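Re: that chain you flagged

S.,

Sorry for the slow reply, it's been a week of failed gels. I finally had a moment to sit down with the sequence you sent. For the record, here it is as I used it:
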Amino acid sequence: MTVVVGTAGHIDHGKTALLRALTGIDADRLPEERRRGMTIDVGYAHLAFHDGTELDFVDVPGHDRLVGNMLVGAGEIDAALLVVAADDGPRAQTLEHLELLDALGISDGVAVVTKVDLAGPERTAAVVAAVRALLERTTLHGIPLVAVSSTSGEGLADLRAALAALRDRVLARAGDTRAPARLAIDRVFTVRGRGTVVTGTLRGGPLEVGERLRVEPGEWPVRVRELQVHGRSVVRLERDGPGGGGGRVAVNLVVVEAAELRRGQLLAAGPAVVATDRLVVAIRPPVVLGREPARWPLDHGAAVRLHLGTDQVEATVRRGRRDAASLSTGEEIVRLALARPVAAAIGDRFVLRRPSPAATAAGGRILDTAPAIGVSRRRSDPDRLRALGEAAAADDTLAALVALHGVLPRRRAVAALAARGADEPALAARGADEPALGPLGERAGVSVLGAFLAAPDVLVALETAALEHVAGRHAAQPLSGGLPLGELRPIIGRSLRRLVTVSPADATAIAGVLLDRLVDAGRLARDGDIVRDPRRPPGLPAEVRAAMDRLEVALAVAAPPPFAEAVRVAGCPVEGVRALESAGRIVRLEADLAYATSTYRELERLALQLAGAGPLAPAALRDATGTSRKFSLAVLEDLDRRGLLRRTPAGHVLGPRASRNR
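Prediction finished late last night. Pasting the structure tokens below so you have them in one place:
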């Protein structure tokens, strides 16, 4: 793994000269930078050690007007190289860069006091003491400090040793991760004959030639044509190989034009990264060095600039009653509304800057990349937000997210777990329609309902609604066999949509899965498309079945009585009529005309036989059946509709579907 170190410090304090002395590489890559003698954009260099390991350096501008460019470089670093000139001492950008590094949570690095050949021992000692005092107030407290001269070489050997120790510390903390590869783009250019190339710091991995990625925001599919690390082409980047798991990488892409890409976009291989224009975040007040502390916490509606990875975008702070909470860590949970979508993942760190007067407003981390809206937002409260903000493990995060949203798509759950570095999401194949959550989902205490996860309270509410509606049907209609599925699913779907934000189609699908769970658990019983209380015997009561038999007999004649009259005389309730129709025992031709199915099939056979001998008139069928014109017309019209007969001026003849039914 390659460790990425970002420089920090005031303009003209010797950052670029120090990197040149260490690495032999001039990080000022632009002609204007060389002409003006100052770093304007982010530059890069690398240091090779005798054991074959390397450090990547990101050289950032020190000018106050270029803080945005500084954060582009600092957004993807593992450690910092703070540079302070001995002849000048800590200055404005020294303090501001330290505030930014603290806001990003950078906690390791090396401090360097340069130009000791110009300052002399006493001045150097005073600056060293001043730098140590500043560091003690930040996340970089306790890091090594080395005094050097880039011109004479004094102290450079000690600095190399300190950097080697830094590399070892960072690698020891890195541990193992199976997070998919991601790369925040900081440069885009075109190479003649090869096409579009982007560069950035690789996180996660592995990454290999031929791999398919996507660009976020945008969801553009791309493919890796070539990979280079420090000018060397490689086929695959492993965590323990060149550039693997981190480090500066150049990626030659297929199926994208350079004009379509920009600094700030991100190449992603897994589900953790999404494009979003709203975030739930935990922010903490910045360390304040050399200026008056700003008001804290940030006000609702405060305009800030979000610096995330290599991107930056205008944002507005939202902290209504449902949107804010305080954590035991001293952080505040708020929402951010962004001017445009950015590529983000749960756990990503960022900086908020005030526009005027320009200053660091907060450091923070992302808790949710797709905050709840609509009905689901009503679930947002300080307790649920605190649970999300203080989640210590991947399953804690999953449980807190599901609790906050009520219902969460499984794909979002997998993305959240992947962002937290959980192993289980790696079990799911990339691009699978139904990503597996593995045992982590079970440990989180959430329920899987098809393509969604449900919070315990939502599940209980839906189960209660289903059971109560079935019980209510039994109470209101004692002779009923239960509640039809086609009626119950939408009812449960509507109950769900009163609790959370979900589309009608998804709500009905979730309701179907829930009902299947209740049947499997024995809490409901199902007879065909009818759902009933399992304590009730299946089917209809004996008296209803007897009435059904009486009605069927009454309709088993060529000229049956009016249907409503037959139902009344047989004493058959609505449930019995519905059951007869569902079972195919009776055929309804009109609202008040029905036949027993066996009788109607005989009438149908007779009509087809007569029509096969020649055009069939209604009167002929009337005479053949001994009925009236009313019945013969109804039968012939039904057979015409079904394609068994076809009406002509001469009479009814066999239709296109007659041969299949003879």
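What I noticed first: Confidence is low (pLDDT under 50) at residues 28-41, 62-66, 240-245, 424-435.

Talk soon,
D.
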